[in-house]
Amino acid sequence: MPFVSPRKVWHLGIKELWSLLRDPVMLLLILYMFTAAVYVAATAQPETLTRAALAVVDEDESQLSLRLRTAFAPPQFMPPELVTPAQADARLDRGRATFVLVIPAGFQRRVLAGRSAELQLNVDATRMSQAFSGSTYIQQIALGEIDTFLHRGGGAAAPPVDLTVRARFNPALAPSWFGGVAELVNNITMLSVILTGAALIREREHGTVEHLLVMPVSPLEIMLAKLWSMGSVVLAATLVALLGIVRGLLGVQIGGSVALFLAGTMVHLFAVTSLGILLATLARGMPQFGILVVLVLLPLQMLSGANTPRESIPWLLREAMLAAPTTHFVELSQAILFRGAGLDVAWPQMLALLLIGAVLFGVSLARFGAAMRR
Fold this sequence. Notes:
By secondary structure, this protein is mainly alpha-helical. It has helices at about 5-20, 25-35, 35-45, 65-70, 85-95, 105-110, 130-150, 175-205, 210-215, 220-250, 260-280, 285-300, 315-320, 325-335, 345-374, and strands spanning about 55-60, 80, 100-105, 120-125. It has a 4-stranded mixed sheet, sandwiched between helices. The longest helix has about 30 residues, at about 175-205.
């Protein structure tokens, strides 16, 4: 291994930071992705059903049907609209109602007689965010009202089994907790690749690489400078996002050590910044680099387990993704931030990230050195 001068690596890294400070677009991107993007990703989708449009066709006009009509109230549902069957179809066709509940004639009489009684629920399934959860809500509310109506004179029989549900790590089952952390993890990977790759391509386009060729610096020193400078920027932004946005604004209870998470992030940054340099050596310009980033990052993020559990991924892809740094970083992040894991649990992922980073760094150094010698 050639001799590495820490002084040269330090000054080359400072040069990279000054170059980044002169790029307002990149600074705005960093600011947005570690503040607003994390907050919006966590809060853009409502945590529960909210203001769903419901219409009711009441052909029974009984006391029970009136109870069912008044049971659906804000904030889950807008006040139900009483319509005719013809009007119900028109509202579904025009998107003015997501749900239409049809109460047939003789419904209360059948219920009181203990006979089979049916309710019809028509759902506009094009509104996917409300269709699935809303159907379950309506079923539970309707069954609850019917049970209350039947046992209003006396207490209902106690069920033979009582199921008690306790949710760990996210007691309120708030999707914003998971969404904010998942977005932060994805943005760490994305910005690390973009910053290091763009820094190398920017030097090539501005002719700075030719200046470096006549200076007494080695490709290894240039790469190390880019890695520590861009990695430190992402690490600082990660700390701000974790403490200011995730724990501050979103109120996520961080279960483990922030210092341990930052240590794992540093190892991950070593791998993904090396990946950014590798992509930059393959691209001939910034447009081509952008296409490569999209083609590489989308599979890395979609199959890493950040958005869906790895167990739901086909076996071949699941095993292949063990060679990707994002897979291990997602496991590490969730274990530390959600489950309060310590180093005794997180060290296998950190070791895997270190090995993957070493391979990527070696390949990137070989290509970068060959490109500088040409």
